[in-house]
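A common beginner's mistake is to predict each chain separately and then try to dock the pieces by hand. The better habit, illustrated here, is to supply every component at once so that their relative placement is modeled jointly.
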Amino acid sequence: MSQIVLSKDTASPPDPRDLNAWKGVWVISEPAQGEFPAVTAELLSKGRELSDRLGVDLACVLLGHGLPEDQIQDAVSRGADRVLVLDHPELADFRDQVYGDVIAALARLDRPEIILAPSTTTGRAYIPRVATMLETGLTADCMGLDINENNVLVQTRPTFGGNLMAGIVCPAHRPQMATVRPHVLKPLPEDRSRKGSITRYEPGQDLLSSGIRVLESIHEEIQGPDICQSDVVVTIGRGVESEEYVNMAQELASLLGGCIGATRPVVDAGWASENFQIGQTGVTISPKLYIGLGVSGAIHHTVGIRASEIIVAVNKDPNAPIFDMATYGIVGDVKQILPLLIKSIKERRC
Amino acid sequence: MNIIVCIKQVPDTEAIKFDSEKGILIREGVGAIINPPDLHAIEAALTLKDSLGARITAVTMGPPQAEQALRDAISLGVDDVVLLSDRAFAGADTLATTYVLAKAIKKIGSFDLVICGKQAVDGDTAQVGPGLAARLNVPSVTCVSEIGPNVSEGLLQLTRMTDNGRDLLELRLPALITVHPSLNDPRVPSLRGKMRAKKTTVPVWGLEDLGADPERTGLKGSPTRVKSTWIPSFEARREILSGSPEEQVGTLMERLKEAGVI
Ligand SMILES: Cc1cc2nc3c(=O)[nH]c(=O)nc-3n(C[C@H](O)[C@H](O)[C@H](O)COP(=O)(O)OP(=O)(O)OC[C@H]3O[C@@H](n4cnc5c(N)ncnc54)[C@H](O)[C@@H]3O)c2cc1C
Ligand SMILES: Nc1ncnc2c1ncn2[C@@H]1O[C@H](COP(=O)(O)O)[C@@H](O)[C@H]1O
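With all components supplied together, the output reads:
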């Protein structure tokens, strides 16, 4: 099969302000060796929705080395009309500069109006390079994406203050670029009957040089419980004022067969590990039961818990925003309520 | 070795300290501080200086009061500082920020390594480091959790954190890295450093000093715009449980049992 060779000057850089020069939606896949990455399927479902609204194509960009043919079919089954494949030995290891240069060169050639990419450690490392080279805007960690009446992408994320959501647009530059964290969007079911086109590209040598050499990649299993899979999450907020009550929250979580979660200040204070941080900067969870202890309910946090079936909040401030979304609210002191919760669960057991 | 550290001043809204003696959290008044992840960037530079010898320049783009962040950096052991401040820089998104930072770094002259924090805790984009590297056309490595064991003027061995483990790699300089807070424990300011911080005049560079294009800085140079803000609404399903603490917990248990979650 013929391949299109990409290089730094394959395409003269299109003007980011010439809105008509850019068309179509792209989803950049998370680089992965084996199975089709879940986050790519999630992004493709949103990409499908946006491209249908705009009446344009959805392309999925796959890059790496030795990409399984299955992944190409999966991209189509999950919603892509076109699959743009970059498979090259020099792309086997993730090197920020190389990935950035290659994707920027492809974007200059293909000229999508929207680029969605995963906000994973890898995505966060090179997607900003791409946006900078294309001289356009990039919104990190979007919670929502929509098309407005002017066909502009509206990207939703909490504002810096924490109690408002903001709609962010990139009205006069193309492409409009956004990253989204894993588990924030829902994938479309697989449809193996979908048909799509495949185009293969070969990155030229000028795109492959970089001062980075990966000596070894070490895979480590996550230690401890996986908060994203847990049915019950007992979340420690700053209102859990001492380590004694942190331990009690831990006990409550174990009694309920779940695990603990934490707000950012609690993680920053070293009371819980980073893996347990819920929200904008942490994970998104969808347990059957979320219990927030001394959690105020800042939007940075609550964006991560919205999909929970039942939300219980314990907070001594009746005006805490968490009560607006709690299924059941207890206005009270954690120091009093938490021991009672443990006691009544234990009594229930015997 | 010439090292440039990019630091940002942020509001100290998350002011939180842990009193290990009493085992409690302490909250303090809101001030402005060096973005906490950037303290690890400064520490990384100081550690390299200790082993290889280096001249460290700390750079920040911000309002005039961001000068304080640079003084704090001096008290920690940074050699030179530059404040990038101009009305024309205000309202910058990450694209306009990296434009100004790159202009400043070019004006400073040659560099071997640029170090940034993992992210700024106010905006939390983690975009400035990699974006700046693209402007400087150098390789970048993010989330660095270990530097070494081999370090030399031209080459660093590094460990970076990935989503499912870590990578060991070699980075040829000049380059840019962003550091993960687990890399090091930032030192405290020395008395000598504090004295020097007091006496230093902080150089301020504006639009003209950098020869920057006003169309590419600040709000004007920012492709992204906040269009609207709102409070998300939820279906009214809330029930505030009443009664004594015992009664509240009792009702909750009933509700959870009815729902089949316990
Ligand atoms: C860019 C950015 C990204 C962020 N990302 C995240 C994120 O991913 N996740 C996250 O959690 N945060 C995040 N934050 C921080 C977020 O904005 C809030 O500051 C944080 O969620 C608040 O945590 P909290 O509810 O534990 O603390 P606080 O807001 O301090 O709330 C503590 C609550 O406990 C109550 N309380 C105090 N004592 C007691 C007691 N004895 N009994 C009962 N109640 C008590 C108080 O009434 C208060 O409502 C981010 C912030 C920024 C700027
Ligand atoms: N205004 C600024 N001046 C200097 N450095 C900055 C500035 N903004 C961000 N940085 C650097 O870029 C890193 C990431 O910031 P951000 O992309 O805003 O999350 C920070 O940790 C700093 O090292």
